[in-house]
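Methods, example record. To illustrate the input and output format used throughout this study, we show the complete record for DUF4097 domain-containing protein. The sequence lines were provided to the predictor; the line carrying structure tokens was produced by it.
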Amino acid sequence: MAGAPPPYPPPYPPQGDWKYQRRVMREQAKAQRDISREHWKAYRDQQRFQARGTRSSSILGPILLITVGVIFLLLRIGRLDYTDVGIWYGRWWPMLLLAGGIVLLAEWIFDRSRPADHPYANRSRIGGGVIFLLFLLCIPGIILSASHGDLHSLAHGFSINDDNMEEFMGDRHESDQPLDQAFPAGTSLSVNNPHGDVYVTGTSEDGQIHVGVHKQVFTRSDSDAADKASRLSPTLTTSGLVMSLNVPNLDGARADLTITLPNTAGATVTADHGNVHVNTLKAPVTITSNHGDVEVNAIGGSVIAHINNRGSSFDARGVTGSLTLEGNCRDTDIADVHGAVSLNGDFFGKTHFEHIGSSVRFHTSRTDFQLARLDGEVDITRGDLTADQIQGPVSLSARSYNVTLDRVAGDVSVTTSDGSVDVTAAPPMGNLTIQNRNGEVNVTVPEHANFAVQAETREGEVETDFPLQHSDDDKVSKLTGTVGTGGSLIRINTTQNDISVKKGIVAPLPPPAPPITLTPPAAPESPAAPSTRHSTKPRPPSAEAAGPVI
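The corresponding predicted structure is encoded as:
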């Protein structure tokens, strides 16, 4: 100020300037509004963060994850079948949305019932991840609904797997190649085909092996197709008493083999991706199939099969020797086997036995079933086990089956749970032991049989047609006594269901069938031609016709 020339400006705002005062008041009011707004924003954010901190998460997400995880675990260990789950889910997938809505509604009602001063009085929140998971689960449901739950038709329309991957590598080029070679007596055949079907038939009568090779090459180049077809040619080598037929493993190519050899030869077939058919052989057969169906028919020796694909099927008929099947497969059909039959593994479809002349053993992760001889049929599905005309001793240990044993002779032992048990005993009747839980037990015995009974059920009733003693004590019903002269013992125990012992007219089992023969019996010799010589002289009677000599 001192350096400025006069007149000097006043050191304070001009007195009495109303415009200046109004401007100052306006700026002060604006600053006060800004401060109030910032205070409100801070308070709002504080309340929002506090509400979010006290808001509990919805349990819908964990429920969905646990349910999906349990289902996939059961599918992985074989407790559930992919096709059955697909059919069920394609029909009932909207129940997923209904169940989710019910869970959210229950949470909302629970939140509203809390007092206002509760530290978690706010409603539960559902995250975007749960909504996205619901959306992902609905997509396969819609697709399965459109295919009516038929996974096979859906997979047939669009399927990419190890068996048909080569079809996506280009156009198909086909060619055929014959291969003939002498097959010495006493030699067995070993076949290894990585991609393609194998057909083995014992109908060669000239002492040679005849191989027909049908090649399929998938490529977009004709020159590449010709090169692969030439390299796809199988090789026949002999080492000792084993002749080996090997097909090279080429990407984008497969070879179907049709093999004809003498019926006295044995065969060992290994197929990685393809079906195997073997018939009309009188020697042992061994088959290993990783991705494909197996069929054997009219085999005079033993049969050993290893199947490692839960979608494959196994069919065997007319086997004179024993039969052993191991691994994982879907449907199994075994009939007319004279030797022992053994199945060990996991079988996810229908298992059928018919006319087995020796013992049968069926062992899986949930079932152990053994019997001495099968004159009728056995059908095993996911929830039912039915057998007819079986010869004991019979042993069954299973769970979650409805068991029906009709016309069973000899000793019977059944241990099961969560299913009914129906047994009809045929003469000669043996001891019968049934241990069940959460399922009814019905036993039918011949009306003139001699046996003793010890039956007990908890929280159930007992019923009988025979003069037996019936007692009830503290939710336990018992049935005891002896019919006739005794002999066979019937011991039954179950819980939460009924027991019945009835009389019936039961025919004995038929005699065992004769052994299977692959070679038809020889035709009878034709009678000798009559003599063309004729004589008018009467023939003298024989000594027997003339009577005793006097």
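Annotations derived from this record:
Residues 18-45 form one domain.
The longest helix spans residues 18-54.
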